């Protein structure tokens, strides 16, 4: 309690000492996904499970669902079977799911093998994959997190949390 | 950020700028936005709020780790990891209470924790071990909303409460007092402002921001409002103090509301003010406004609302009084635009808070009380109409001329961000020389009655001479108004060259990652310096502290990285965002294992001595021994 006034004073001083810089430091951390709608998806390169570097641009011309996940994230694991199924159903219509695992490569590879993942999985622990998640509008790297891109590579839909079949079908329909 | 789950539904980003008439609409929209932001249960907290961490020393060589887990969030029992980074101090088996066992279809039986969680870490300390434990904690958790956070890793310093050396079992300080122990990483100053908003009680926060506002009164941005308000008030036919007060209040309130709405809106929209304010057109716009205001201060014209607008406004209202109030309010609204560039800095904390928590109400209140603080002196000036308000007269012209010069200085200073240094240096020279001449530096003093005139002339002469120095500097290629003769004293720099620090440039997150990887492999600590040409503190620091021989020596074992973000490219902004930075100046330290020493970030200028101390605290002894 007694510390309050001191902290306030330091707060005052801190802000005041920043005043001369007023033009330089002036952005606030953006809301998740805010302003991403319709924006060009940020480019990134991450290794896949074989260790080959893959660019997100490789799948231009296809509808891409970028799904951020990790093996330590139960809701992520739950939605993977749906993705496996959707990838199978809509492959010919032009859908490619790209998993981005904020995880250890071995753990991700083992999971992918066990669950028959039939789409590319790129992997990079924090901070690399986390950096990509942030670039895609997810400041805390909270998972699962999915971003749907159209054939031009523009962001069409962003979903936080587990993606359900109905939602995904609804969002995919106009793009495929 | 807390509004994550809304996003899929919110597809249209509202425009950042809008015509005045839409302000009301915007305000309503804002209320609609703000209410669910406060109430909605599905909002996601940032991890440091969802899993608030406190570490303090306990009795008998233990450390108490306390998590305050927000409702609707939980931590996994298998996710905890504690490591001592201090040689000589080892951690024993952590003691934690039994958690709730949950059946997970993938992980089987998992232990989860909700609410408050205390974990006791027993320590064993070797003789001569340091008193400060660097403790790394790792924890992982999820929200009931079906979202999980990546493992959260914190490194905190714990000041172990050492017993007196002579006798074992002597009295110890009360282990429960947080003052004795470590606080969770204090992060950066901006974070602190945002955190302050979150922690302190409402009254104190508002008071603090009111205080910022009062301080802002003394910035050139607020000066032009004095003659504007004085014009409105002195223009009244019958002037009672009450009427003067009402008019001033309308002016100040309109200014405050405009400012608050714009600020909250920018915060909620996550607008990148930094990018906007680095835009040459925006800077150009402000420069023109400042020049225009300066010219009016010099008496070239009077600042008044266009007559047509004034007539229309009075016509809108039946009563004469109402018309004036609307007029004053409109002028207040327009005036808020003028204050814009001055208030950006204190705004940052409030904006950060709004955008991180979505709590537009508290953030907005803070901004509002900031503007009220800024408006209070205007209110006093306005109300006192007859007595305090500046009236026409010789002395008032002097005051206005000084304001005018300050406004021009503002304009040049803004221009420094986009114009070549030689040009702005020349403008400084011109401004100082002309001001000096105006102050009578070149005119003879009148016979008798010299007193103040002599002082005035003396000051004018100093300003004139410094202006001439700047002019010489501009002609000889100097860039820094504080070192105008740099170009002519090149010989002097010869000895310094040997002691120059070598920075490796990094421009995007990937380059940084690579550089950090190399340093990690080499076991080198890293200093990452965010720099920009237009960042006054950065250049100042580069020219002074970083040239100090002692500093250069201390940094000999450190890998130096420089992110020159002058161009503010997309990659630059990404890089800064990854560190939650608004912009330079910022120095970020990584230890030899490549972990960021987050609580040792340096934001702002430090002189050599202070910098050395900071460096030691952040990285320990950094020179290669021997």
How would you explain this protein's 3D organization?
The complex is a heterodimer of chains A (176) and B (626). Chain A is of the alpha/beta class. Chain A has a domain of 115 residues: 3-Layer(aba) Sandwich (Glutaredoxin), CATH 3.40.30.10. Chain A has 5 helices and 7 strands. A 5-stranded mixed β-sheet of chain A has the order 5-4-3-6-7, covered by helices on one side. In chain A, strands 1-2 form a two-stranded antiparallel sheet. The relative contact order of chain A is 0.19. Chain B is an alpha+beta fold and 626 residues long. Chain B folds into 5 domains: 36 residues, no CATH class; 114 residues, Immunoglobulin-like (Sandwich), CATH 2.60.40; 214 residues, no CATH class; 69 residues; 121 residues, Glutaredoxin (3-Layer(aba) Sandwich). Chain B is built from 21 helices and 16 strands. In chain B, the strands form 4 sheets. Chain B has a 5-stranded antiparallel β-sheet, with no helix packed on it. In chain B, β10 and β11 form a beta hairpin. The longest helix of chain B is centred in the middle third of the chain and has 38 residues. Chain B is globular and about 90 Å long. Chain B starts with 21 loop residues before the first helix and ends in a 7-residue tail after the last helix. The N terminus of chain B is likely disordered. The interface between A and B is large, with 61 and 91 residues.
Briefly say what this structure is:
The complex is a heterodimer of chains A (176) and B (626). With 176 residues, chain A is of the alpha/beta class.
Low-confidence stretches of chain B: 1-42, 162-190, 491-498
For the largest sheet of chain B, list the strands in their spatial order: 6-7-3-10-11
Strand content of chain B: 5-15%
**CATH superfamily assignment of the domain at 62-176 in chain A?**
Glutaredoxin
Number of helical stretches of at least 4 residues of chain A: 5
The average pLDDT value of chain A, as a whole number, equals 80
**What Rg of chain B is obtained from the alpha carbons, in whole angstroms?**
29 Å
- Largest sheet descriptor of chain A: 5 strands, mixed
CATH topology of the domain at 62-176 in chain A, by name, is Glutaredoxin
H and E order of chain A: HEEEHEHEHEEH
Structural class of chain B: alpha+beta
CATH class group of the domain at 62-176 in chain A: Alpha Beta
Instruction: Give the class of chain A from helix and strand content and strand pairing.
Output: alpha/beta
The largest contact between protein chains, plus residue counts on each side, is: A-B, 61 and 91 residues
Oligomer: heterodimer
- Could you tell me the radius of gyration of chain A in angstroms? 20 Å
């Amino acid at each position: 309690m007694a510390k309050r006034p001191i902290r306030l004073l330091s707060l005052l001083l801190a802000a005041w000492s920043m005043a001369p810089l007023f033009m330089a430091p002036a952005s606030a951390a953006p809301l998740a996904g805010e302003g991403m709608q319709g924006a060009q998806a940020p480019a990134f390169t991450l290794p896949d499970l074989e260790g080959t570097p893959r660019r997100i641009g490789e799948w231009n011309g296809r509808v891409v669902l970028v799904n951020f996940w990790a093996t330590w994230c139960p809701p992520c694991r739950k939605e993977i079977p749906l993705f496996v199924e959707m990838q199978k159903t809509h492959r010919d219509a032009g859908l490619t799911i790209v998993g981005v695992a904020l995880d250890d490569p071995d753990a991700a590879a083992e999971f992918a093998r066990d669950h028959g993942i039939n789409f590319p999985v790129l992997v990079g622990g924090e901070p690399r994959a986390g950096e990509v998640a942030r670039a895609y509008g997810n400041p805390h790297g909270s998972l699962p997190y999915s971003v749907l891109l159209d054939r031009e590579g523009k962001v069409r839909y962003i979903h936080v949390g587990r993606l359900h079949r109905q939602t995904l079908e609804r969002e995919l329909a106009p793009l495929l | 950020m807390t509004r994550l789950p809304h996003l899929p539904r919110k597809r249209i980003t509202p425009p950042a700028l809008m015509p005045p008439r839409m302000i009301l609409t915007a305000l309503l929209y804002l209320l609609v936005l703000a209410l669910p932001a406060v109430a909605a249960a599905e909002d996601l907290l940032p991890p440091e709020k969802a899993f608030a961490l406190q570490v303090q020393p306990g009795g008998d060589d233990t450390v108490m780790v306390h998590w305050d887990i927000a409702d609707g969030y939980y931590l996994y029992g298998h996710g905890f990891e504690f490591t001592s980074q201090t040689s000589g101090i080892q951690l024993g088996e952590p003691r934690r209470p039994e958690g709730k066992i949950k059946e997970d279809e993938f992980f089987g039986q998992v232990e989860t924790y909700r609410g408050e969680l205390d974990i006791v870490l027993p320590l064993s300390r070797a003789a001569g071990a340091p008193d400060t434990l660097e403790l790394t904690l790792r924890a992982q958790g999820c929200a009931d909303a079906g979202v999980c956070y990546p493992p959260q890793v914190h490194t905190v310093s714990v000041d172990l409460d050492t017993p007196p050396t002579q006798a074992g079992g002597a009295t110890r300080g009360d282990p429960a007092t947080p003052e004795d122990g470590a606080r969770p990483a204090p992060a950066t100053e901006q974070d602190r402002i945002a955190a302050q908003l979150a922690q302190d009680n409402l009254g104190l926060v508002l008071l603090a921001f009111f205080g910022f506002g009062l301080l802002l009164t003394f910035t050139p941005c607020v000066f032009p409002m004095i003659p504007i308000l004085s014009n409105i008030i002195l223009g009244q036919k019958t002037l009672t103090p009450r009427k003067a007060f009402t008019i001033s209040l309308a002016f100040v309130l309109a200014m405050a509301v405009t400012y608050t709405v714009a600020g909250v809106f920018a915060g909620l929209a996550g607008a990148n003010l930094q990018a906007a304010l680095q835009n040459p057109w925006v800077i150009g716009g402000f420069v023109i406004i400042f020049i225009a205001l300066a010219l009016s201060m010099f008496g070239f014209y009077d600042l008044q609302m266009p007559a047509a607008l004034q007539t229309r406004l009075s016509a809108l209202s039946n009563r004469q009084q109402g018309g004036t109030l609307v007029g004053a309010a409109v002028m207040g609204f327009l005036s808020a635009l003028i204050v814009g560039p001055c208030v950006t800095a204190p705004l940052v904390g409030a904006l950060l808070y709004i955008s991180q928590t979505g709590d537009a109400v508290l953030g907005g209140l803070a901004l509002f009380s900031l503007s009220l603080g800024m408006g209070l002196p205007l209110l006093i000036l306005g109300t006192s109409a007859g007595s305090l308000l500046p009236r026409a007269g010789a002395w008032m012209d002097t005051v206005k001329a000084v304001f005018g010069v300050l406004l021009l200085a503002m304009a040049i200073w803004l221009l420094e961000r986009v114009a070549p240094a030689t040009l702005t240096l020349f403008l400084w020279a011109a401004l100082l020389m002309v001001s000096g001449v105006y102050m009578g530096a070149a005119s003879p003093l009148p016979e008798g009655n010299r007193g103040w005139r002599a002082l005035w002339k003396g000051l004018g002469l100093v300003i004139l001479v410094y202006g001439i120095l700047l002019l010489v500097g501009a002609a000889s290629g100097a860039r820094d108004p504080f070192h105008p003769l740099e170009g002519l004293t090149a010989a002097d720099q010869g000895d310094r060259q040997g002691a120059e620090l070598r920075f490796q440039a990094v421009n995007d997150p990937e380059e940084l990652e690579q550089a950090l990887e190399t340093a990690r492999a080499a076991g080198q600590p890293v200093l990452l310096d965010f720099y920009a040409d237009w960042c006054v503190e950065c250049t100042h620091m580069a020219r002074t502290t970083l040239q100090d021989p002692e500093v250069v020596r201390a940094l000999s074992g450190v890998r130096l990285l420089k992110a020159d973000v002058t161009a503010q490219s997309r990659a630059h902004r990404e890089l800064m965002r990854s560190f939650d930075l608004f912009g330079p100046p910022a120095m970020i330290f990584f230890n030899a294992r490549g972990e960021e020493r987050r609580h040792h970030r340096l934001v702002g200028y430090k002189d050599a001595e202070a910098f050395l101390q900071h460096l030691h605290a952040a990285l320990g002894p950094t020179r290669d021994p021997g």
